[in-house]
Amino acid sequence: PNADSILLDLGLSSLQIDRAERGFAYSVDAPLDMRMDQSDGPTAAELLNTADADELIRILRGWGQEKFTDRIVRAIVAARAAEPITTSGQLVGIITEAIPVAARHQGGHPAKRTFQALRIAVNHEMATLDRVIPEALERLAVGGRFAVLAYHSLEDRPVKDAFRSAASDSAPPGLPIVPESMQPRFTLVTRGAERPDEDELACNPRSASARLRVIERIKPA
Length: 221
What we know:
The protein is α+β, with helices and mostly antiparallel strands. Helix content is 43%, strand content 13%. The protein has helices spanning 14-17, 44-50, 53-64, 69-82, 88-98, 112-123, 125-139, 153-166, 198-203, and strands spanning 3-9, 140-150, 186-188, 211-217. A four-stranded mixed beta sheet has the order 1-2-4-3. Helix 3 packs across helix 6 (112-123). The longest helix is centred in the middle third of the chain and has 15 residues, at 125-139. It is elongated.
C-alpha cells in the first residue's frame, strides 16, 4: 500500500550514544562495538584489527573525510601489531598521537571523524540509505510527503541529489515544451535544507547539525 507520509531520522539514538558499553563515544573508555544491532556482524574492534591498510584508508577518507587518514591508519596498523585494539580509549590515544600537535585542539575532538567513519562502515549506513530513498519515493501516495532528517553532509548529499532528480522532468535538454508524460512526479517542499532555529537549539543542543528535506508526490507513478 502507498504511504501518506514517511520520515527517516538518520541520527543516532541518544539511548545508544549514552550507553558507554556500546562504544559509540570517544569521550569514555569502553569496548569498541558500534553495532546498532549487537547480534549482527563484526564490531568496530574486529574491523580495526582485521581490515588491511587500504580498506581502513578507504573507510576513514570516504566516511570520515579525515584529512590525517594516512597518518592515523599507519598508527593503527603499528599499534595492532603489538596488541589488539579493543577499546575506545586505546583508539583515541592512537589517533591523538598520530595527528600533528597543532591539529589536536582544532575542529572538535581529534577522534570525531574516525569514530564516525567506523560507525558508518560497521552498520553499512550509506548502502542502506542508498537503497531506502528510491523505495520510499516509490511508495508515496499522491499528496504524500517524504521527510529526511540528516546530520552530516555524507547523509545529506544523497538525499539532496535524489530529491532534486525526483523533482525534475525527464525531458531532453532544450525541449521547448515538456510533455505531460515527462513532467516531474514530485515537488520539493523545502528549498534547500531546513536547519534548527535558536529555540530548538536551546532546548535540544544535539539538533545543531540537523538538516531537514521534504518532498511531495504530485503525480502517480
